[in-house]
## 1
Amino acid sequence: MGQITFLCVYLVLSLAQGEQINRFRRKIPDNILFGAGTSAYQIEGAWNIDGRTESVWDHMSHKKPCQIHNCDNGDIAADSYNNYERDVQMMKELGLDFYRFSISWSRVLPTNSPDDINEAGVAYYNKLINEMLKYNITPMVTIHHLDVPLQLDALGGWVNPNMVDWFVSYARVVYELFGDRVKTWFTINEPREYCTQQSSANKSGINEYLCARHMLLGHAKAYYVYQNEFKAKYGGKVGIVLNSVWYEPESEKDAEAAEVKLQFELGQYAHPIFSKSGDWPPVIKDRIAAKSAAQGFSESRLPEFTPEEVELIRGSSDFFGLNHYTTDLVYRNNSVNGLYPSPSYQDDVNVITYQPETWEKTIAPWHKVVPWGFYKLLNKIREDYGNPPLYVTENGCPTGPGLFDTQRIFFYRKYLNAMLDSIDEGSDVRVYTAWSLMDNFEWIMGYQDKFGLYEVDFNSPTRTRTPRASVFYYKKVIKTRKV
Ligand code: NOJ
């Protein structure tokens, strides 16, 4: 049976059964908003159009193209720069409450000077926002989503302390330009992913922590710029987006190893902002100090925050933004000795992670479907950080091509149920974002891993979008408010 026929059969069956099944489906609390997400470099294209300058990803994909799967790049991507009306139509078709997208720094500030605003770039975001508002779809905007302007990357990116002020000036510009219509701001997306994976600075067991320190300071200062200069006028909310896998101990004896891993990956960024005491998590401070001393450093490789900085960062987020995709098992035994270079971030954590073959696979080697891990992570955030308002800013399942994406439908059903289990126990989840509205440039994996509710035909000049079966599922969840 062809895919379209299959899709039709699925639709007819689900419509026919709809009413009966509805009675048994689980109710979603009324206060949860549903949306879908994307980011600028992953969908916009128009990389050198209307005055935009290069980001690290343009540069890397042009200079070392084959580091990326199939030597792909984001030059055209889903061409959302020219397809924004179709994108909004898709949001409307889905019945989304909101859409999370990001602004390209080098499109708005091509020379990185806050006095040199690129009006053509600004016009694109105005058109997109205004089109969404026509249909009552709320814009939720990420200010910085992994696409560091090339000129700033050449100066060290977030390893350079000046990046803090450069970012804060950029944030002020976007609050000023769009703050009358945008009431939810995400300062920085996935700082840990950038600092330990994507940053082009050498991974030395030093730069990762400098980077974390500067991203936390940049976030907090941008938070206070909004509080002091815009909040009274616009009344919006500002927060950070952190990402974490759930780390499950392989056995009881590995509980400490799993906790250390979670503290490095999530706590390093969450503890300074969301814990009562602020500052780095104690376990990270202790481990890096001890390792640094043993390695002959005169002081810890983990830079300290001054007491004023601890206070600045503590509490600097109106909500806990969380991107979550999967779960790993964690253990530590003698085989870890000498496994990682010393000094290094991996050596500081000093654990081994893996996913058992028996867990449900997806197309991506790093990703397995483990809904109970989402439940445990939400509970842990509730317990460790005093139950902050939680925005699930990304959750999704990679698949191969094709419209009949049953795995994605089941993924969402299972993960939404896991989220409801955690809400039943008291977690204050307010926002759920499916990643992604449409297929896009999946960083190092190029266009191979598809995350889209909508399929994008990357061979068609107009980048045609077609709904996958999961569109009909997600739409129904949103409409009936039942999983
Ligand atoms: C998190 C990132 O924010 C997003 O850019 C990426 O596409 C998804 N994870 C899927 O890997």
## 2
Amino acid sequence: MAVWALIGFMGCGKSSIGRTAAKMLGVAFIDLDEEIVRRCGKSIPEIFSAIGEAGFRAIERETLAELLSRKGKAQLPSDILLSLGGGTLTDEGSRELVKKNCKCIYLRATVETLAANLRWEGEAASRPMLAGADPKAPAESPDSLESRIASMMAARGPVYEKAADIILDIDGLDYSDVARQILNCFSGK
Ligand code: S3P
């Protein structure tokens, strides 16, 4: 199985789906954001406010490189399901690391699905890249979550698609359905 990475925009469910799928597959699950938080002893918003996006991307790249270099050694099994951050692949160095070491499953969703997931329990507030977007604004307003997601997805969508070995369209599915689809990918169904 080696390292399978879940990729996709914020709010597509990479962490929750990955955790469920890894349990079903009986493999280790690693969330890159959690590794970064552990390594820095700070939350993601704290890291962004201290060193900005470029600083965060450098830490994200270092954390990813360090993690992949431990693969198959004492503390880390060689079969891993790894949830990346929504912006990991925007960094060239991280993208190269992923290309060399991982197979990618893209959890693809429409702007509406992503916005609905991010609105759920105020999830958008914990994402610095969405700062300034107003979760209460109507979708057509330039400040809305939908407008922000649409403009970021215009740049990121092609990057996810290019990196993907498998694309799963997740609109209308609940997380356990998607986890089962991931399982089917592995059993070749
Ligand atoms: C980011 C996504 C976040 C986290 C950071 C930056 C992004 O991860 O890495 O806030 O640029 O899209 P999730 O996709 O898990 O929310």
